[in-house]
Amino acid sequence: MKISYSNYQLTPKRKPNAREGLTRKSGVYLRGELRGQILFADYFPHEELGDESIDEFMENFRFQKTEYEKKVFHLLLKDQSFQSMKPQMFKNHALGKETTLHAPIKYKIQGHDDFGFIPYLEKRRTLRLDPNGIFSRMELDFFLKKIDPSLLKKVEYIEDPTHDGKWEGLPLKVARDFFQGDSYDIVIHKPNARFHSEKEKKHIYSSYMGGALGNFHAYAELVTEGDLSLFHGIQTFGTYEEDRELFTGTDLLTPHQDNIRKLYGDLMNRDWKSLGSI
């Protein structure tokens, strides 16, 4: 397969998480030519959370050493079938704000003194907390002691609660994302970067908070492999100035077919440079 690439940048409207700031972020689109088909994929690294830089990825992609490299190639091969899929609805949590009374709210904790989620708990809203591993276990225990235990009952889970992996015995259910811990109940599955694993555990499908193509691919894998009775985290529209609205609805979302077609039309018209063959 002949591979070409095209770099792009995104401008955050808000901090993506506690470890990343408001500086512009870079990604790279890949274009594959195989038996007359044109295929696309997206690499969007979060280096602060351990991903390869774009330069490293471009140098190493043909060797297929990391799971992320292998997954991007897998999505490249699946792209044509994704484009021809019949649209399906899916349930999406609210990201840092209220929508209806049905969807859980995902709240990204930005620091050791960020208790901005308490009002949601006081309204008896279900929360998914995500500190992105900013706490040690001792710091997290101290943080949780400041919250009324009766309110913690409305927390569905806490995602990557500490960076030291000491998750055993926490008073909340735990979800694993970027960090590996000694005890967890749920896997946050990033279709853009990982293969489905630990099939015995509940998987919440999550966008990689990158470009629109990656977001569409995450949706496509969710509706073909995921549990559609659960609320997932595919929709992240509004994170970047350059975001495209790929889905319509509130909580229960459906693909915006015209915008998805326009996305692929724009990809066809980009300037591409050769990366070689794989």
Entry summary:
The protein is of the alpha/beta class.
Layout of helices and strands:
Elements: E1 2-10, E2 25-34, E3 37-43, H1 54-60, H2 67-83, E4 90-92, E5 94-95, E6 105-108, H3 118-122, E7 127-130, H4 137-145, H5 149-152, E8 155-159, E9 174-176, E10 186-189, E11 202-205, H6 212-225, E12 231-232, E13 247-248, E14 252-255, H7 257-268, E15 273-277
Parallel strand pairs: 4-12, 5-6, 6-7, 7-8, 8-9, 9-10, 10-11
Antiparallel strand pairs: 1-2, 1-15, 2-3, 4-14, 13-14
Describe this structure in words.
With 278 residues, the chain is α/β, with parallel strands linked by helices. It is 24% helix and 24% strand. The chain contains seven helices and 15 strands. The protein has helices at residues 54-60, 67-83, 118-122, 137-145, 149-152, 212-225, 257-268, and strands at 2-10, 25-34, 37-43, 90-92, 94-95, 105-108, 127-130, 155-159, 174-176, 186-189, 202-205, 231-232, 247-248, 252-255, 273-277. It has a seven-stranded parallel sheet with strand order 5-6-7-8-9-10-11.
